[in-house]
TrEMBL record:
Any Pfam family: Aldo_ket_red
Annotated ranges, domain NADP-dependent oxidoreductase: 39-287
InterPro entries in the cross-refs: AKR2_Oxidoreductase, NAD(P)_OxRdtase_dom_sf, NADP_OxRdtase_dom
UniProt-recorded name of the protein: Aldo/keto reductase
Species classification: Bacteria, Thermotogati, Deinococcota, Deinococci, Deinococcales
Naturally occurring in which organism (per UniProt): Deinococcus radiopugnans ATCC 19172
């Protein structure tokens, strides 16, 4: 299967920088993964992981304005290395933790035109180029962003300028949000052509809507395939997953990622690795072939899954 996002023969696995661009994040064990949390140390660390990802053939890299220094780290790495990578970024959240892991608030969400107009040039400066994908960060029906004619008109301008515009989704209403986005029109044309959604063995509820987006010609990217570490062996594994891992002689994170890669509508699946060792483990997913249908029983109700995710501690 080829991807509209990637050059021929590139793996459909990409690297997301949510855990690499800021010292605090909600992945299980994130605090222990980073021994030195100064900006310079984290930049060097991020470049080391990015170098390994590139050497492994990964060509898609994902950031966001709210991922601390992720866009800066990624942009600097791309300029230094000269690599022709495919880059995605997102607008709509502002990072406010000031590099503290104990901040009361780490990011603030705002899907208005002022935020879009402020963050677009910030992204251009940090990356040193236009992103190939530019997404509304965690769009929901509640924010009203899909009804905001001024925001939609500005995103249509970005699309007319050669950027693939879309949205990322979060929360128990992912499918409903995506279906509404599929109906958006600006002067009779939908500016959206990409979605990044949470899909994993614990929360597969957006799958049917993602298949609809794929059928409409959209690029479909999976995020949080290891459920912020819950499927990476840092929490007690469901017996069915542990049994399949033993049978395949594979780590749970690799199995979780392989299950996402097996979805026929998935153009790309993001690794959220914080360390080279985690990335090496994730890369096993590219060579795993198995029957994942026996893991369907792992699915939680969307309300329960997102309630648990909301309760994860930063670091």
């Amino acid at each position: 299967m080829t991807s509209p996002l990637l050059p021929p023969h590139a793996p459909r696995l990409g690297l997301g920088l949510a855990a690499l661009g800021r010292p605090g994040y909600i992945n299980l064990g994130h605090g222990e993964d980073l021994t030195d949390k100064t900006v310079e140390a984290m930049r060097e660390h991020a470049w080391t992981v990015l170098d390994r990802a590139w050497a492994a053939g990964l060509r898609y890299f994902d950031a966001a304005r709210s991922y601390g220094r992720a866009e800066d780290f990624l942009g600097g790495w791309l300029r230094e290395r000269g690599y022709p990578a495919t880059v995605g970024s997102k607008w709509g959240y502002t990072y406010v933790a000031n590099w503290r892991t104990d901040a009361d608030t780490h990011e603030i969400k705002s899907h208005d035109l002022d935020t879009l107009d402020r963050q677009w040039p910030e992204t251009l400066e940090a990356l040193g180029r236009q992103p190939d994908l530019y997404l509304i960060h965690s769009a929901t029906l509640a924010t009203g962003v899909l009804e905001d004619v001024r925001v939609l008109a500005r995103l249509a301008e970005r699309a007319a300028g050669g950027v693939r515009v879309g949205l990322s989704t979060s929360g128990p209403g992912q499918a409903e949000t995506l279906r509404r986005a599929l109906e958006v029109a600006v002067d009779g044309v939908n500016p959206f052509s990409a979605v990044q959604a949470t899909w994993n063995l614990l929360e597969p509820s957006a799958g049917t809507a993602l298949a609809e987006a794929d059928a409409a010609g959209w690029a479909v990217v999976v995020k949080e395939a290891v459920a912020n570490g819950r499927l990476a062996g840092r929490a007690t594994l469901p017996p069915a997953l542990a049994e399949l891992c033993a049978g395949l002689n594979a780590t749970p994170d690799a199995v979780a990622l392989a299950a996402a890669l097996a979805q026929p509508w998935a153009d790309g699946v993001l690794s959220g690795a914080t360390t080279v060792e985690q990335l090496e483990s994730n890369l096993q997913a590219l060579t795993l072939a198995g029957d994942f249908s026996g893991l369907a029983g792992l699915a939680e109700s969307p309300a329960s899954y997102w309630r648990t995710r909301a309760g994860l501690a930063w670091n």
